[in-house]
Amino acid sequence: MRTDILIAGVGGQGQILASRLIGTAAILEGYAVRTGETIGMAQRGGSVVSHVRIGGESMAATIPFGSADLLIGFELCETVRNIKRLSKNGRLIVNIQRINPVTVSLGMDEYDGTAMEEALRDVTSSLIMIDGYALAIEAGSIKAVNTVLLGASVGSGYLPISRESFMEAIRSIIPQRFHSINFTAFDSGYHMARHIIAEDVELKER
Amino acid sequence: MGNEAIALGAIKAGVRVVCGYPGTPSTEILETVAKNNDGSIYTEWSVNEKTAMEVAAGAAYSGARAMVTMKQVGLNVASDPLMSLVYIGVKGGLVIVVADDPGPLSSQTEQDTRHFAKFANLPVLDPSTPEEAYEMVQAAFELSEQVGLPVILRPTTRICHACSSIDVSDTREEHVPAGFEKDSRWVIFPQLSYKRHIETEKLQIALSLIFSKSPFNRISGKGPLGIAGSGIAWSYAQDVISDLDMDIRTFKVGTPYPFPAKLAESFLDGLDAVLVLEELDPVVEEALLEIAGSKGLKISILGKKTGNTPYAGEFSYELVHKAISDFAGLPNPDIADPAIPTLPSRIPVLCAGCPHRASFYAVKKAMKGQKAVFTGDIGCYTLGNAKPLSMVDTCLCMGASISVAQGIKRIEPDTRLFAFIGDSTFFHTGIPGVINAVYNQTDIVIVVLDNGTTAMTGHQPHPGTANTMMGNISEKIDIEALLKSVGVKWVRKVNPFDQKTAILAAKEASVVKGVSAIIFEAPCIALVKKPEPLNVDSEKCRACGLCIREIGCPAMVLEENGRVRIEPSACYACGLCGSVCPFEAIGGMSNED
User: Fold this and answer.
1) I want to staple B69 with a disulfide (CB 3.0 to 4.6 A). Which of A182, B24, B29, B472 is the partner?
2) Homologous superfamily assigned to B355-527
3) Which pLDDT score is estimated for B538?
4) Nearest neighbour of A122 by CB, restricted to B236, B238, B339
5) Nearest CB to A36: which of B106, B162, B338?
C-alpha cells in the first residue's frame, strides 16, 4: 500500500497529534512512514498542514501537488486552501467547523463558506462532511476533534489502516487519562462516516 | 522527527554535555536528549547561544563529547566563540547543530550556515533525510575528534520537522572524558593564532580528501547530463528522477564544506552540463564552478547564478520537477488546477487570552494622541504588530528592542520610546541594552512582557522560571531586582489585565527622566487551566463591534447580524474585551442569569 495523506487546519487544532497517530498506526501495520509538518510561529492560529506518506519510496515528506490520496480537513477554508494537492481520485474528509480568521471579524477579508463547499464538491465526489466539533464535545472534549476525524477516515474506508491499529496507537502515544475520551471520539467519527456512506449508497440504489 | 533522530544519534555517540537556546526549527533536539537522558548526560537551556557554545567548548576542552544546538540566527550570537574555537580546537568531539530555515518559516533571515562554516573554516554536514541526520551526527563526533575541530551539522526545517521510520540502536558508546589538562594551547594569543591558522588551512585540504571518500557523498547514474544536490533539495531531486524514470548522472553532496573536490572531479568527468540543486546560497554551485574553472573543463554549470533555481525561499517537489524537466528538455508536468474561491488570509495571531494583548492595549491607550514609537523584539509578542493593535514598530533581532529605542530617542528627543521585550529574550540579550541606557542616561521605557516562559518555541524554562532542564529548582532571577540593581530607579510590576492600573503605569513611566521599566506579569495561557469562557449578553450588546475593532481577539466572532459571539472553545476569560465594552455586555458564566 502506498498512501499520501494531507491534514489541513488551523494551528492549535491538534493536527500534529493526528499525524503522529496515523504514523504510529501505520508503523504498527508494518509500513514505512514519512511525515512533515508546520511547527513554530504558524501554530499561533495560522494555517497549518501536515503531510503523512505511508509505504512509498519517496525521500521527501512533502506531498506534491495532485498526489494526496486523502485530505483530512480540520476546517473548511483550510481544506479548500489545500485541494491543489489532492489527486484525481483523491478523497476528502472535512470537518464542517468554520474558524473565522481575525481579518474576517475586522472586515478586512470575507469568508464565503458556500462557495468553499461548492469548490470541494467540484473537486471530488468522494467527500464526507461531518460535524467533528459536535462529536468531540459529545465525547468529552473539543480537543478530541482530531481523533473524531481519524475515526471518520477509517470508518469511511478512505484511510486503509485498521481501527485496532489506531486504538493501539492512541494507547501508545496519548496519556492514559485521555484514552477513554479518544476511544469514544474515534468511534463516533468511525460510525458517523459509515452511516453517511451507507445512507448515500441507499439513496443511489433507489 | 529529524530533531529526535539527531538527539538519539548524539546519545548513541556517547555525548556527555548538550546545551543550547530554543529556536525553531532546532528546539526539539535538546528536548529529546533531556527526555531520553539516562542520567549520564548534562543538559541545559543556556541563557543564549554564545553562552551555550562556551559551555559546550569547556566540556570538549575537558575531553567530553559535547553538543550545542541553535537555529541559524543563534549562530550569529554564538559566532564570537565559534570563530576563535577554530583556532583553539577541541579535545572531545564537539558538534554544533545549527538548524537553517529556508522560506523562512519561522525566522528573520534566510542565512545559509554552510557559508558560515566556510567562513569559519569548519567542516559542515548537510543531511537530506532524518535517517541521514541520525548517521551524520554520529559521524560528526568521530570527525571532530579525528581532526580536533568542532563540526557543524546543518539540518533544515524540512529535515528537523520531518518524521520517518528509523531503526535506533539501544547501545551507547562509552567515552570517558580525560578531564581538563592545563596546556598553553587553551589560551588564544596572536602568535598562537598565526600558527594555528597555517595548520587550519592545511586541515581544509586534508578534510576535502577525507570527504571525497565519505559515504555522505555519492555518484551514481550515467549520461552526458549531471545533477548535483544537497540537503532536502537532493531528496526532491531523487523523487523527481524516480517519478520521471530518468537515468542521469547524479552527485549527492552531504559535506558541502570542505568540498569533496576529488570526488567532484570524477563526477564532472565527461559531462556536458550540470544542474545544481540546493536551497539558499550557491555553495555547491560555486565549488563546482571553481573546479571546472581551475581544471579548464568545458561544462556549463547551471543553478542560481544562471537563473535556473532561486536564491530565496524554500524548494519544493514542483520547483525541482520544473528545473529538472527544463534541464533535460522534458515537457513540464501537467498539474490540475482546481477552481478555488477567494479565501481569507490566515496569519498567526496572539492567542485568545494572551496577556501580551492586554499589555500592548494598555500602552496604546496610555499613549493615545502622543508621539510614541514602540520597538519590539523576538517572540510571540512580535505578533503585536498586526492590526488592530499595531504596537510593534520595529523588530530586528533578539534583544534589539531596548537598544534600537535608544538610537531613535537620540534623533527624536520629543518622542516617547517604549521597548517591548519578553522575559526569556530579556535574559538572552536584553540586559546589556538596559545597562547601556542607564549608563548613557537615555529616556526610554522598558516594557518586560513576563509570561513566565519561553512561549513561542514551546514553553522552555529560563532564568526567571526557577527550574532547570535537569529538573532542579534554581534561584529565580528576579527581573525587578535586576533592573533596580543596574540603576533603573522607576520600576513598576503590573498585571496587564488590570487595565486601569496598567494604563496609569504606562502614562507615569513615559514622563520619567532616564530609564523607567514596567514589568507586565501574567502567565502564558498555555500554562494555565482553561477557565469557563465569557459570553455576550445579547440584550446589552448593541452590535457596535468596538471590542473586535479594538483588540482583535481570535475568540470573538462577528455574527451576520453584526453582534459579537464569543467562541467558547477559544475563550480564556481574560476579560480584556469586557473592559473595552462600553455597555458592559460581556460577562462571566452563563449561569449568572
Assistant:
1) B29
2) Thiamin diphosphate (ThDP)-binding fold, Pyr/PP domains (3.40.50.970)
3) 87
4) B339
5) B162
